[in-house]
Amino acid sequence: MPGLTRQSISRQVLAKNLDTRIKSAYDDGASMARHESLPYRPCVGTMVLNRKGLVFIGRRTEGPEHVDLSHVWQMPQGGIDKGEDPWPAALRELHEETSISSVKKLDEIAEWLPYDLPPDVAKQAWKGKYRGQTQKWYALRFTGDESEINILEPAGGHEPEFVEWRWEPMRNLPDLVIPFKRTVYQRVVDAFAHLVK
User: Fold this and answer.
1) Between 6-27 and 29-37, two packed helices, what is the crossing angle to 10 degrees?
2) How far is 117 from 156, CA to CA, in rounded Å?
3) Closest Cα to residue 46, out of 194, 188, 196?
4) 128, 115, 119, 116: which is closest to 25 by C-alpha?
5) Mean pLDDT of the region 55-67
């Protein structure tokens, strides 16, 4: 197709497929009822702040929630293993995704913050067992050297979750994340904003 790059064609196809999948899911009332009866997947999230008060974010290129080429940045997060407590799970997930282990806990949000996936996305994520995730969030101070951070060959031989990372002002986070996580991200920012004042 003249004038179109492979990347722009890819974006058009992804956007069209996503629109079609979401529309078909919302058109099916029975499917919606089944979606709303599903449980949330227990999960942890970590806001890692450096000494300047900037937040670690990583860019994803794939995964069950990656449905938008414009909003590809997020903070480290991941599921809680059976029998695992949230705080150790948060440290484990952070290490598995970033190799970061030099942290100090600054704060946590007492309540769990849920978000729903679009129904058609939920059918494909986690074998269709969950409607979304409910997350326990922690704020951490990164106390190590940036050479500790390794997203391409993360600790324990885990597959990379991120292909790029950077430090970002906290206030920008809700605009960078996938839209269905935006409400949770705004609540996390509001809860931890006092850490950068």
Assistant:
1) 90
2) 29
3) 188
4) 119
5) 80
Query: Residue ranges of the alpha helices (H) in the chain?
Result: 6-27, 29-37, 86-98, 119-124, 173-176, 182-192
pLDDT band at 145 (very low <50, low <70, confident <90, very high): very high
Bridge-partner residues for 196, per DSSP?
none
Closest CA to 121 of 35, 61, 52: 35
Predicted confidence (pLDDT) per residue in 157-169, tens digit:
888 989 999 999 9
pLDDT above 60 (res 51): yes
Q: What predicted TM-score, i.e. pTM, was given to this entire model?
A: 0.81
What is the SS3 assignment for 113-140? Answer: EEEECCHHHHHHHHHHCCCEEEEEEEEE
Dist CA 125 CA 49 (whole Å): 29
**Among the listed residues 160, 138, 113, the one whose alpha carbon sits nearest the alpha carbon of residue 48:** 138
95-125 tens-digit pLDDT: 999 999 999 999 999 999 999 998 888 888 8
Nearest to 191 by CA among 112, 134, 95: 112
Residue with the two structure tokens 């484990």: 92
